[in-house]
Design brief:
Elements (H helix, E strand, L loop, with lengths): L1 E4 L5 H16 L5 E6 L5 H12 L2 E6 L7 H13 L4 E4 L14 H29 L2 E5 L14 H19 L5 E7 L8 H4 L2 H10 L8 H12 L10 E4 L26
Parallel strand pairs: 1-2, 1-4, 2-3, 4-5, 5-6, 6-7
Length: 269
């Protein structure tokens, strides 16, 4: 496994690096993992050190994906380190909270640059290496790209555009043997979200709204990404796999006045 993972300093990105390395080592294969981040946090080094301790060959590379020249550089360094590329995971994200009335053009443009354009530029740069290896791409979208998140600025529109981009790449690059998919995470306990989940009441309310009755761990998103990159998914492309514990399919559960069976109505097994 030779993989480049962006936004890899913590959360879903870091968990994905660990999962890909662990699975490759378990198969008796070498694991080359290139983890990237902006470099604003010390977590990237921690992830790389952990990967090395697992037995993987790993490096961390920094770069701001809002710069259109950075994706090509990251891919070039990854291909050189790995001797090729089997997998690209585009996970880096930019969040900017604002209403549509308050939002400024510069914040809209930066969000789309990181959340949408970067995946295209990374994929474009990685195309020769992925074609040579019969490799695969997985982008991380969001359920917000399907169900808009009010007051969250350009986040939802940029993720909706990313879903469409994935479908376009899959359509165009299928003949090159490159599969392109995405996952749309639901509520997940990442570091950015932890201040919210530190509130026990909010955590319980969110868990209650999810059919599986719990908020996800980043490792569960990493598992879905690893599956889509694996040979087990060899005939899956152009798909946006929703990984949200059933939350987005449970909207009718919140309709006021719907029938709610009482405990006495339930038949024993």
């Amino acid at each position: 496994m030779r993989a480049l993972v962006t936004g890899a300093s913590y959360g879903i990105g870091g968990a994905t690096c660990r999962k890909l390395a662990k699975d490759a080592i378990a198969r008796g294969e070498p694991a080359y993992i290139v983890a990237t981040a902006t470099g604003r946090n010390p977590d990237l080094k921690e992830v790389v050190d952990e990967l090395k301790a697992m037995g993987a060959k790993a490096i961390g590379i920094t770069g701001d994906l809002s710069d259109p020249d950075v994706p090509k550089r990251l891919v070039a360094e990854a291909v050189e380190f790995c001797g090729g590329l089997d997998a690209l995971v585009s996970n880096a994200v930019m969040r900017h909270k604002a209403t549509m009335l308050e939002l400024e053009v510069k914040d809209w443009d930066r969000s789309f640059a990181v959340n949408t354009r970067a995946t295209w530029l990374l994929a474009k740069a990685a195309h020769p290496a992925l074609k040579a290896s019969g490799g695969s791409i997985v982008a991380v979208t969001s359920i917000a790209g399907i169900f808009p998140h009010a007051n969250y600025g350009p986040y939802a529109p940029s993720k909706a555009a990313l879903i469409n981009l994935v479908e376009m790449l899959a359509h165009e690059w299928g003949e090159d043997g490159i599969r392109v998919n995405s996952i749309a995470p639901g509520m997940t306990r990442t570091r950015n979200a932890e201040p919210v989940y530190a509130n026990k009441d909010i955590l319980e309310q969110r868990a209650a709204a999810i059919p599986l009755k719990r908020v996800a761990d980043p490792s569960e998103m990493a598992g879905a990404i690893a599956m889509l990159l694996s040979k087990d998914a060899s005939y899956i492309t152009g798909q946006n796999v929703v990984v949200d514990g059933g939350y987005s399919k449970a909207i009718m559960s919140f309709v006021p006045g719907r029938f709610m069976p009482k405990a006495s109505d339930k038949k024993p097994d």
